[in-house]
Amino acid sequence: MIVAAGVACAVGAVAFVVVERRAAEPMVDLALFTARSFTGGVVAQVLWGLGVNGVFFYTAIFLQGVLGFSPTASGVAFVPLAVLVVAVTPLVPLVERRMGAGRTAAAGLVLVAAGMGSVAFLGPGDGWGELLPAVCAIGVGSALTMPLGSAVLGAVPETRAGVAGGVFTVGREISGLFGIAAIGVIVQSAGTFASGYSAGLLVAAALVLVGAAVSVAALR
Fold it and tell me: What 3 state SS string does 177-200 have?
């Protein structure tokens, strides 16, 4: 059933591209992807979503089942991340003006990857002291990825901004679905949940690092 659904999805994607290329008024103008900043921003966002969303789905299980956190403590563990995203985001334009969109987003993605990579080496006996730096790195890094959206919108004419924003958002949501599935395969194939989660974190961090390279190469 899963393979059949995957094949149907692939066939539908190909059919969509064929129809859109022939349509007089396409829903998605594929010519947008000829703009390097547009394509680079979308790809970097997708790679971020594949890594971060895929891992976060299993993080609560890891915190409770491996680190021994209570359900309440597991929820509280995400609070610093959310607070830092809100607190750092207003400062991002200042950083972007000095470093440029590509380097700012890349720096954020590197921080996110570093945070996830450090969590991969946590295990029984570790607690807040070991977890909090990683959570803070992911929060600050996620805020610094905000220029990805502005770069995508700025790469297209104003009349296409709505379509560009839609493609960017859909890419982020779809990447989350595929990320959960992909990391789930890694988790399930390992001997234990802890080892599978750690391996999944390292794979996710690698994907995010590729996104950082794409940001530097494609965004101004």
Answer: HHHHHHHHHHHHHCCCHHHHHHHH
Whether the predicted model's global pTM rises above the 0.85 cut? yes
* Closest listed residue to residue 168, CA positions, set 150, 180, 142, 183: 150
Rounded CA separation 30/17 (Å): 8
DSSP H helical segments within 66-146, as ranges? 71-76, 79-88, 92-99, 101-119, 128-144
> 67: which DSSP letter?
S
Please tell me whether residue 61 adopts helix, strand or coil conformation: helix
What single-letter amino acid sits at 85? V
SS3 state of residue 125: coil
How many C-beta atoms lie closer than 10 Å to residue 119's C-beta?
Answer: 27
| pLDDT value, residue 44 | 93
* Tens digit of each residue's pLDDT (9 = 90 or more) over 102-134: 999 999 999 999 999 999 999 998 888 999 999
Contacts of 78 (CB under 8 A, 6+ apart): 135
